[in-house]
Amino acid sequence: MTTTPEPPNRRPQRRRRRRRLSIDDYVQGVLKGDRGVLARAITLIESRKDSDRPAAQAVLQALLPHTGAAVRVGITGVPGVGKSTFIDAFGMHLLEQGHRVAVLAVDPSSAISGGSIMGDKTRMQRLGMAEAAFVRPSPSGLSLGGVTRRTRESLLLCEAAGYDVILIETVGVGQSETVVAEMVDTFLVLMLPGAGDELQGIKRGILEMADILAVNKADGDNRLRAQAARQEYQAALRYLHRRDPHWKTPVPLISGQTGEGLPEIWETIGLHRAQLQETGTFNQRRSEQRLRWMWDAIEEQLLSAFHETQAVQAQLKGLEAAVKNGERPPTVAAEALIAVFRESYSSSSQSSPS
Ligand code: GDP
Question: Using a 6 Å cutoff on CB, does residue 91 contact ligand 1?
């Protein structure tokens, strides 16, 4: 028998000794704002074991009445735009104002590369050490769908633990900024000075989703370029479809490094929130987000049930090959697989009526 050596950073002994928490332990610990229990509760909801799902759902269900009060802010921008520097400084500013801040990351690259760009420990150093903050990197090894479902659930847990500002960070890669924009109240897009080059490469969709478009690194020699960038972005925004006709996306100049403009970002988030509430858009957005979440969960669960079905697995490779080489039309193969899935599902539900 071969044994797999433990990776050096694991501490199996401590793990084994750790007491299993009951659902009530999780619920009470989170409500008390115990960061250790919160971290474990998030690990529970991130678990891919089916056997953990009932406990995870029970914890969420019990905590649901204690959620919803936080200011939910999404933050995106290309790698290197200064997101972690900004979040560290902005988060520290909020802590000084008496807020409690949680940071979550949505990082689909982890699903592709197996490692997380955001997971390295050097990011958000001050905030990571602060008593009133909670920083959680992205769960690794999940599809974007899986990451987002767990991020939404983590967001609720953080709210129940008393964090009143939740910052959700994502790299502007693939679809991740769209899904983050759909789970927050205010979506902040960070841009670099040097708009001319950037405007060509930037996805139009990101500009349309932005509630605040901040030109970051507007310090030192960058200052003039940042001002020019602001004018270009303002001009570009005029021609774009607005997500909310009552809100004109502001384009502030900020610096995560010097802290300039950060208090104003918080004020703008407050103005945006007040405006959403005044027009009734706030509740409408939140209820649409809940519905969207339900459908994402249905899609994810159906797809994973599909992949886990043995009868499907038995046919999948052969049908995929037949589709690839043109022997079978894709829709015919899809229908055949769905039929196998349905058949297998209905026979298994007949044999186990519970
Ligand atoms: P992220 O990849 O978007 O999280 O970006 P980082 O926060 O890691 O920053 C990328 C690089 O830009 C680092 O070398 C930072 O020191 C630098 N940087 C971040 N914020 C600022 C800023 O406000 N001004 C200047 N001049 N540099 C910054």
Answer: no
